[in-house]
Amino acid sequence: MSIKFKNVTKEYKTGTNSFYALKNVSFKANEGEIVAILGPSGSGKSTLLNILGEIDRATDGEIMFGDLNVSKLSDKELTKYRRNNVGFVFQFYNLIPNLTAFENIEVAAELTKSPLKIEEVLEAVGMLQNKNKFPQQLSGGEQQRISIARAIIKNPKLLLCDEPTGALDYNTSKEVLELLDKINKMYGTTIFIVTHNTSIASMCHRIIKLRSGQITDVKLNKERISPK
Ligand code: ADP
Ligand code: ADP
């Protein structure tokens, strides 16, 4: 699904003060792209991701998902849209500790009409042999693979990853990026990855740089051929 932001602004008001976490942010991303959002702490990366994921609303501006103007949807419609179309991956995996890898994915599968089989996604992330292990029996990289499997079980059009490699060493981070790349190719998922890490960003198709709530640079990666 293609994504378009037009003059998206997020304003926080505290008393008489107002603060812009995002100010007039505009960009496009093609369907099937992997987009990196790069920027220092406090630059608005999480805010941008939360707005993309419909867990936060912009104060102003227009957001298009393909031909759908999501800025016009009601809160109820947004929730429904998110449930069916958007997957999330977090820095600290957020797996349920007393459920096995398989059961963690099963919980997510039960919440949506899942088009994919749990075994199929476990296979896709290379974790079928670990399906009966509990999160604490798995390494950080393995837990992140399970959390990616959980996010893609509903075959979302959009996958949002907030610092997915923030707690991992360099080699494991690279493997996680390679896995996201494989999922992007297998399912055509549009993927956004928030990161501080320029070498992780350099593995993506498009790199959006944020600073103080504004885009300072959008770059297409010459090393990577964008799907469109
Ligand atoms: P990043 O993810 O790049 O670290 P954030 O999107 O989390 O940045 O935050 C951007 C700015 O918006 C920060 O200065 C932060 O303090 C501010 N901010 C985020 N959420 C709120 C909020 N709920 N109320 C007030 N300010 C906020
Ligand atoms: P990160 O480093 O992952 O961006 P942050 O510490 O910036 O995390 O933000 C974590 C959460 O706290 C976010 O959901 C953000 O909206 C909220 N937050 C950040 N800054 C503020 C703030 N000044 N006031 C209220 N909430 C905030």
Structure description:
The chain is of the alpha/beta class and 228 residues long. The protein has 7 helices and 10 strands. The strands form 2 sheets. It has a 6-stranded mixed β-sheet, sandwiched between helices. It has a 4-stranded antiparallel β-sheet with strand order 2-1-4-5, with helices on one face. A hairpin with a 2-residue loop joins strand 9 and strand 10. Helix 3 runs parallel beside helix 5, helix 4 crosses helix 5 (140-152) and helix 5 (140-152) packs parallel to helix 6. The N and C termini lie close together (12 Å). The mean pLDDT is 94. The structure holds adenosine-5'-diphosphate (2 copies). One adenosine-5'-diphosphate is lined by residues 12, 19, 21, 39, 41-47. It holds the Pfam family ABC_tran. InterPro entries: AAA+_ATPase, ABC_transporter-like_ATP-bd, ABC_transporter-like_CS, MacB-like_ATP-bd, P-loop_NTPase. This is Putative ABC transport system ATP-binding protein. Belongs to the ABC transporter superfamily. Keywords: ATP-binding, Nucleotide-binding, Transport.
Describe what is shown at a glance.
This protein is α/β, with parallel strands linked by helices.
The global form is globular
Summed over residues and divided by their number, the pLDDT gives a mean of 94
Strand order of the largest sheet: 6-7-8-3-9-10
Question: What structural category arises from helix and sheet content?
Answer: alpha/beta
Q: State the share of residues found in helices, binned by percent.
A: 25-40%
Terminus-to-terminus distance: 12 Å
For the sheet with most strands, the description reads: 6 strands, mixed
What is the radius of gyration?
17 Å
Bound molecules: adenosine-5'-diphosphate
Topology order in helix (H) and strand (E) letters? EEEHEEHEHHHEHEHEE
Number of strands: 10
Low-confidence stretches: none
Strand content: 25-35%
